[in-house]
Amino acid sequence: MLNISKFRVEKMVKIIEKKRAKNRTEFNKNYEKAIRFIKAGKDKKAQELSSTDVLGYYSVYAEAEKKEKQGDLRSAAKLYWKNIFVNGTDAPANFRRLLIVLGKLGEFEDELKVARVYLHFVGDRDRLWLDRRIKKLQKKQGGQL
Hints:
The radius of gyration is 18 Å and the shape is elongated. With about 140 residues, the chain is mostly helical. It is about 80% helix and about 0% strand. The mean pLDDT is about 90. Helix 1 (about 10-40) crosses helix 5 and helix 3 (about 75-85) runs antiparallel to helix 4 (about 90-105). The chain has one domain (about 10-140): Alpha Horseshoe (Serine Threonine Protein Phosphatase 5, Tetratricopeptide repeat). It is built from 6 helices and no strands.
């Protein structure tokens, strides 16, 4: 469904890491610009710059949430994945919601693959939840995945 079968987990992780590194570089550039704007007394320009940086990915997440609530799970999954894979967002909610939606859709192979990708980025807070989810998926598939 997500068209991720052609990618190995390691390849997807590298693509996401590269995008996140690019995002950090861009964020740092914007931060430096904002500091210069503030020093020049251009607070409004600094505020616009910082809000644009953050809100770009939130709108995709918000749209995915909306689709999910409307029952359009396939569209929601694609948007969550876009935010992770294309945009490189590091908000854990995208991974969590994507895994839940894939489970509801019965897309267990994609769910397991995304979970394995998330293992490379997961924080302590979600680690136990993710480990349990992976074990549950492996059981569901009889250890085949």
